[in-house]
Specification:
10% of the residues lie in helices and 35% in strands. By secondary structure, it is mainly beta. Strands 1-4-5-6-7 form a 5-stranded antiparallel sheet, with no helix packed on it. A two-stranded antiparallel sheet has the order 2-3.
Length: 102
């Protein structure tokens, strides 16, 4: 990386070296984001290390991308739940079929 960033010029940069034009972002980036808080009427579940989520007496696969995170669930019809990650609607969950849609 040292050669490509500090020594070698790049054609797309007008034969300048990346180190000569790089500027750090003035916007601060935290080491970790604060935990997501869900409204009190939502059920919350923690997604396990393998992507599984506990639901009643069962476990269902959600996504390995969500491992270690909490999701919020809101019942929108009898046995039908909206699944959220923060404000983002991820899917609908049918607890009778134990299946996600969308």
């Amino acid at each position: 990386r040292h050669i490509y960033n500090d020594e070698r010029p790049h054609e797309t940069l007008g034969q300048k070296r990346p180190v000569t034009i790089y500027r750090p972002s003035p916007r601060p980036y935290p080491e970790a984001l604060p935990p997501i808080e869900y409204a009190g009427h939502l059920e919350t579940r923690k997604v396990e290390h393998n992507g599984m989520m506990r639901w009643k007496n069962d476990r269902i696969f959600t996504s390995k991308t969500l491992r270690g995170e909490y999701v919020g669930l809101e019942e929108i019809d009898d046995g039908i739940w909206s699944v959220y990650y923060g404000p983002v609607l991820l899917a609908r969950f049918d607890e009778r079929e134990m299946r996600f849609y969308g």
